[in-house]
Amino acid sequence: MRTKPWPAITLLISAPILMNLAFTGLGVSFDYPDVLQLPATEALAKFRAEQTTVVVLFGLLAAAACAFAPLAVLAGRLDDSTTMRWAVRAGVAAAIVQTIGLLRWPVLVPGLAGRIATEGPDSSAIHTFETVNTVLGTLIGETAGYILTALWTALVVAALRTPRWFAVLGYVSAAAIATGVLVPLGVEAAGLTNFLGYLLWSAWLLAFAALLARHGAMPSRVASQGS
């Protein structure tokens, strides 16, 4: 009997569930990500109003993002091709940049919010907050994160022989996630397609877990029956 890759299966299930729960919680408590479109003083006022909850939820979201580093390594053991080796690199890099971007909220923002509350709207912390959001948020956490996540997904699908529906779901979710890079350019529809992409991607990760749990083997060795 083949030993099933339970560590990979566990992360494939727990990471997207934790990610979606934390994201939903932030939407309810902090109006995230729409709050990022507000002026810095308003956004930080909302942050301070629910600071404990927001910090905890961003911490959980960062933990979910960080979990994709070991997941990428474990998925890399399913195939020894050059494509999969590049997938591992892309997956680990995606986890790193997204974790860095998300951790700005529990690590840096509480101090900046406190300074602005004390010093008022002329505080230099406002400029610092905006710079942090641009560099760590938009450029590193989001733009680089979207590209690397989409790349990891596409490379994993390319490396493994899986049912056609699974491959299509992976490619479609990767393409939709990648549209997130257009959001800073003012393409409003990209925000929706990126959001839908992450929902499809979550379904793809859960389907990945189901395939591994069912077959107990490398997907590249699973016959594509019914594909």
Low-confidence stretches: 219-227
Percent of residues in β-strands: under 5%
Kindly state the percentage of residues in helix. Answer: over 70%
User: What characterizes the major β-sheet?
Assistant: none
Name the shape in a single word: elongated
Q: Radius of gyration in whole Å, from Cα?
A: 19 Å
State the end-to-end CA separation: 25 Å
Structural class assignment: mainly alpha
N-to-C order of helices and strands: HHHHHHHHH
Question: Can you put this structure into words, describing what you see?
Answer:
This protein has 227 residues and is an all-alpha fold. Helix content is 77%, strand content 0%. It contains nine helices and no strands.
Topology (elements, then pairings):
Blueprint lengths: L5 H25 L9 H10 L1 H16 L1 H9 L5 H26 L1 H11 L5 H35 L4 H15 L9 H28 L12
